[in-house]
Amino acid sequence: MANAGDIVAVLSSDGRFIDVGSACLRVLGTPAEALLGTPVLEHVHPDDREEAVRRLARCGHGASVEDGGPFLCRVRHAAGGWRHMETTAFNRPDDPKVRGIVIHARDVTDRVETEQRLRASEALYQTLARSAPVGIFQTDRDGGIVFANPRFAAIAGLSPDALSGHAWRASLHPDDRKRLEADWAQAVAAGLPVLLNLRFCATDGTVTFALCQGSPLTDADGRVQGCVGTLTDMTEYVRTADALLMAEARTNAIVDAAADAIVTMDGEGIVHSFNPAAEAMFGIPAADMLWSRIDRLIPDMVGLLQDGGLAVYQPGGEAHGAGAVREAVAVRGGDGDRFPIEVSVSAVETGGRRVFTGIIRDITARKRSESDLIAAKEAAESADRAKSTFLQVMSHELRTPLNAVIGFAQVIEMRLLGTGEVDRYIDYAGSIRQSGEHLLAIIDDILDITTIEAGGLRLNETPVEPSALVGEALNLVAIQSGKRGVPIRIDLEDGLPTLFGDALRLRQVLVNLLSNAVKFSNPGGTAVVRARCGSDGGVELSVTDTGIGIAAEDLPTVMTPFAQVDQSMARRYEGMGLGLSISKRLVEAHGGTLRIDSAPGQGTTVTVALPPSRGMDDA
């Protein structure tokens, strides 16, 4: 027994050690001599003593009796603790070399502890598998289920008893079965992991989306023997993803169809999205603006975002919805043209990042309409003032000749000068005639401007010789020219074409211009009427005087009906202020233009330019 690897001992019939092998020291840390004479039960774990007593009792009856097979018990170690011993006992009372019970004990502590750890690990695995939120499975090489936890059965919509083998595939969506078989076979052949998206159909028609992930199990030679993996229910994820995609598609459709420009950007003004309306508004493709700064198009935008000018975000505060609407100036991407816009911005914060959405509207048309309304209002007010002034002027213009008519008529009617003053009466009759003609001219001008503004002007077009037109106009203002002492000089270019137009209206224009030249020239001054070919092939008629002239800021006034630079009742120059306005409209009716070049104290030149189409060759 001295050289035995296991503990070999001999017990007396009452269970005390008679002889102990030397292995006792190595296995239990106790010298053999320390055990001699001690009861064996003192060294056995209390929980195992009952079985030890029973075994010893069996060996104590009769000769050469075995204890019935190996007995596993725990024996105290000298250092404390217990060692697991696999023990067999043989009763040899008749053997003269033994005369007792032979005990053979083998230390199996490592094996027992390993088996305990394996059982604990298996129990833990089973517990984890039962409580895991994902399905856990193990298959053979062909994909037949060897083990699956309850969660796998729940995801597949089957009872745990229906999972074994290939029965679980019956719950797969028909469109996924062939794909599963093909991908599984390919992964097993290559020894690669399996990653599949599957659908399971329950008996009530419910579809469950699942993600199957598996890893190959190989033997010692590297051959794939099966697979172990997980089955994750992805139904809520798929539904959420579909809902997000639908919401994104709906949002994109709204943004793309919006009439206003919609731009998203971060706090530094970097553009993240740029809808089609923004492309059209700014004249730049979205691809050229993404990840560029918005101040390239809206210089003031970053400042509005950072200083809270749009009231949508304050540093350290919460993000807000739609902020204030502000006006700003934008730059068109292609041509650099600047135009007014209206901006409304909302802000959200996610993951510590701020994202701004700006709705931008081009308000050019609105601004133009506002300007037009203001201009129309001012024009209406100006017209109202002009008409009020006109009534005052007209009353003065009409009263003066009427007073003369009535006064001279009363003198003649009452023969206040006596019957012998025939010549004087004749002079008074001439004054009455002149006053009547003046009244008629005023009335004619009022009727002309009223007809023109009402759109009732009709031209009676016939061939017109420019030289004849100038001569007729001169004859009509000759008396006025003589009385004022302002001679009129004629300057006609040779080869002027015959015009096609309304001779009466063209003569009226020249008479108005010549009459003004005489009226506003100082006695002794000279007026010039010219006719020449224009640079564009048309005909230009101009009248130049050496009179008082007109300041540049007063030129719009002299072209306005019923308006004169001097509106006072004590004006130096009489008239209704309709001559130039009527002349301008008559010239425009012929497709021409009327231009005034003047300066105070340097006289005035009024030029009528008739287009080439008024020449008889082009008519």
TrEMBL record:
<dbReference type="Pfam" id="PF08448">
    <property type="entry name" value="PAS_4"/>
</dbReference>
<dbReference type="InterPro" id="IPR013767">
    <property type="entry name" value="PAS_fold"/>
</dbReference>
<protein>
    <recommendedName>
        <fullName>histidine kinase</fullName>
        <ecNumber>2.7.13.3</ecNumber>
    </recommendedName>
</protein>
<dbReference type="InterPro" id="IPR003661">
    <property type="entry name" value="HisK_dim/P_dom"/>
</dbReference>
<dbReference type="InterPro" id="IPR003594">
    <property type="entry name" value="HATPase_dom"/>
</dbReference>
<keyword id="KW-0418">Kinase</keyword>
<dbReference type="GO" id="GO:0006355">
    <property type="term" value="P:regulation of DNA-templated transcription"/>
</dbReference>
<dbReference type="Pfam" id="PF00989">
    <property type="entry name" value="PAS"/>
</dbReference>
<dbReference type="InterPro" id="IPR013656">
    <property type="entry name" value="PAS_4"/>
</dbReference>
<keyword id="KW-0597">Phosphoprotein</keyword>
<dbReference type="InterPro" id="IPR004358">
    <property type="entry name" value="Sig_transdc_His_kin-like_C"/>
</dbReference>
<keyword id="KW-0902">Two-component regulatory system</keyword>
<dbReference type="InterPro" id="IPR035965">
    <property type="entry name" value="PAS-like_dom_sf"/>
</dbReference>
<dbReference type="InterPro" id="IPR036890">
    <property type="entry name" value="HATPase_C_sf"/>
</dbReference>
<dbReference type="Pfam" id="PF02518">
    <property type="entry name" value="HATPase_c"/>
</dbReference>
<dbReference type="GO" id="GO:0000155">
    <property type="term" value="F:phosphorelay sensor kinase activity"/>
</dbReference>
<feature type="domain" description="Histidine kinase">
    <location>
        <begin position="393"/>
        <end position="614"/>
    </location>
</feature>
<dbReference type="InterPro" id="IPR036097">
    <property type="entry name" value="HisK_dim/P_sf"/>
</dbReference>
<dbReference type="InterPro" id="IPR000014">
    <property type="entry name" value="PAS"/>
</dbReference>
<dbReference type="InterPro" id="IPR005467">
    <property type="entry name" value="His_kinase_dom"/>
</dbReference>
<dbReference type="InterPro" id="IPR001610">
    <property type="entry name" value="PAC"/>
</dbReference>
<dbReference type="Pfam" id="PF00512">
    <property type="entry name" value="HisKA"/>
</dbReference>
<feature type="domain" description="PAS">
    <location>
        <begin position="1"/>
        <end position="63"/>
    </location>
</feature>
<feature type="domain" description="PAS">
    <location>
        <begin position="121"/>
        <end position="191"/>
    </location>
</feature>
<feature type="domain" description="PAC">
    <location>
        <begin position="194"/>
        <end position="246"/>
    </location>
</feature>
<feature type="domain" description="PAS">
    <location>
        <begin position="247"/>
        <end position="290"/>
    </location>
</feature>
<dbReference type="InterPro" id="IPR000700">
    <property type="entry name" value="PAS-assoc_C"/>
</dbReference>
<keyword id="KW-0808">Transferase</keyword>
